[in-house]
């Protein structure tokens, strides 16, 4: 495991050099704060723009209806993280393998006493840690403002929602990792990754047992957990199969890297 740790530390250094450890957590923190602040102050802002702040602000507030803390917190996941947040995340991670593959660094690393599984695990753990910290900062920044402006939510629901949603992001990390092995273009990886995530999220709105095979259903369960304190139908099966998908994607990534046409730079393919 010493090779895994060495490669992991190398990845951490690269992420610091590319400033990912700075800008990605900041972006998620901003996304997390946006939802509660926007929902709370939108009636006043719209009213001020219309001239008669008190009357128009009250009218807008009536149209929006009564919004509680759970709904605002759930909206942070479904409106901020599940849309712009995932796209930004894919953009941040898409070049992790492609850049090393195309400049020949991947070929050099794998000619050392380094196994493909060590390389993949180091990449995955490094990206998972970055995602965990970024999501955590944004998620709990959102909860802080929800607590100040709307009131508290049961902490058990908050932590459970975070854990469920994090597994969904781990699936995205694993999918982007294997896409980076298969394709040489970051644009292609971004397109397929973001498009696939959006399609899965759209499908997750349907009902039925087939959702156990949809990793995006975890996001719907995280939202449901925050709002109701409970999960939706087929959650356990969905969670286990999503974890299995992550393991399968990592296994396929390792398998692909053992083939020479995948672990040498583009100039040698």
Automatic annotation (TrEMBL):
<feature type="transmembrane region" description="Helical">
    <location>
        <begin position="233"/>
        <end position="257"/>
    </location>
</feature>
<keyword id="KW-1133">Transmembrane helix</keyword>
<feature type="transmembrane region" description="Helical">
    <location>
        <begin position="158"/>
        <end position="182"/>
    </location>
</feature>
<feature type="transmembrane region" description="Helical">
    <location>
        <begin position="81"/>
        <end position="99"/>
    </location>
</feature>
<protein>
    <submittedName>
        <fullName>ABC transporter permease</fullName>
    </submittedName>
</protein>
<feature type="transmembrane region" description="Helical">
    <location>
        <begin position="189"/>
        <end position="213"/>
    </location>
</feature>
<keyword id="KW-0812">Transmembrane</keyword>
<dbReference type="GO" id="GO:0005886">
    <property type="term" value="C:plasma membrane"/>
</dbReference>
<feature type="transmembrane region" description="Helical">
    <location>
        <begin position="21"/>
        <end position="42"/>
    </location>
</feature>
<keyword id="KW-0472">Membrane</keyword>
<dbReference type="Pfam" id="PF12679">
    <property type="entry name" value="ABC2_membrane_2"/>
</dbReference>
<dbReference type="GO" id="GO:0140359">
    <property type="term" value="F:ABC-type transporter activity"/>
</dbReference>
<feature type="transmembrane region" description="Helical">
    <location>
        <begin position="120"/>
        <end position="146"/>
    </location>
</feature>
């Amino acid at each position: 495991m010493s090779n895994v740790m060495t490669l992991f530390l190398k990845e951490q250094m690269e992420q610091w050099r590319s400033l990912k450890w700075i800008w990605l957590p900041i972006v998620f923190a901003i996304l997390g704060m946006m939802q509660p602040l926007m929902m709370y102050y939108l009636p006043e802002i719209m009213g001020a723009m219309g001239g008669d702040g008190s009357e128009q602000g009250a009218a807008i507030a009536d149209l929006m209806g009564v919004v509680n803390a759970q709904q605002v917190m759930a909206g942070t996941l479904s409106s901020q993280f599940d849309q712009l947040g995932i796209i930004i995340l894919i953009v941040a991670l898409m070049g992790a393998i492609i850049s090393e593959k195309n400049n020949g660094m991947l070929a050099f690393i794998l000619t050392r006493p380094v196994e493909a599984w060590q390389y993949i695990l180091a990449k995955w753990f490094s990206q998972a840690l970055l995602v965990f910290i970024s999501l955590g900062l944004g998620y709990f920044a959102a909860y802080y403002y929800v607590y100040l402006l709307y009131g508290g939510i049961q902490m058990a629901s908050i932590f459970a929602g975070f854990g469920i949603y994090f597994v969904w992001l781990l699936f995205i990390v694993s999918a982007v990792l294997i896409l980076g092995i298969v394709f040489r273009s970051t644009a292609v990886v971004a397109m397929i990754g973001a498009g696939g995530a959006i399609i899965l999220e759209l499908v997750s709105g349907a009902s039925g047992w087939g959702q156990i095979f949809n990793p995006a259903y975890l996001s719907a369960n995280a939202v449901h957990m925050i709002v109701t304190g409970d999960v939706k139908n087929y959650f356990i099966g969905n969670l286990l199969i999503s974890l299995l998908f992550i393991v399968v994607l990592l296994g396929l990534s390792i398998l692909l890297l053992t083939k020479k046409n995948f672990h040498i730079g583009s100039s040698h393919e």
